[in-house]
Amino acid sequence: MGARLLSSRQENILLLRLDSNDGFPRLKRAILRELGQEIAHLARNNELVGAVITGTDRAFAAGAEISEIANLAAAEAFEFSRFGQSVMREIENSKRPVIAAIRGYCMGGGFDLALTCHARIAAPDATFAHPGGSLGIITGWGGTQRCSRLIGHARALELFVTGTRIGADEALAWGLINTIAPAEQAVPAAVRLAAELAAARS
User: Fold this and answer.
1) What burial class does residue 170 get, using C-beta atoms within 10 Å of its C-beta: 0-12 exposed, 13-18 middle, 19+ buried?
2) pLDDT confidence bin for 67, thresholds 50/70/90
3) pTM of this prediction?
4) 142 pairs with which residues across the strands?
5) Across the chain, how many H-helices and E-strands are there?
């Protein structure tokens, strides 16, 4: 689907945009590798104070690339899970704030990615779900634990077992996201928040 990670800067904030030809970015191994490299770059470059991760106007990320993992042997699947976990931990443990700006679908592995960020700003059209349960799989990237810490065990269990989809209003009420911003303002709001958090930490 032509998945790619586009990197740019807005002043001293690193902007990482997940993109694809169909508007539904998927987290292929190559994309995860690039994402990890960009977070390492964030840590090394003293001109950068924070980062924003976003997607297209249709989806933050539509999850892992199922065709890439469907035929993995057990050992290969374990290695892929460990690799994804390592990238997620790099984001979560970043000493510089990383903010998710979410429009459209935030699903599966994309949901896991959003959960690793230090804050989440969503547009009114954002939709959150982890549909793996209906496919007979569960995330290997730490989303179950991070989601439980954010919204409590009972609600996290409901999301992961049933694959329930929730919109931005419910996500805000549950504490899954920090705020809702107009669609065209989600990224600018995330950039401002990254700068504010960085200033507060300095």
Assistant:
1) middle
2) low
3) 0.92
4) none
5) 9, 10
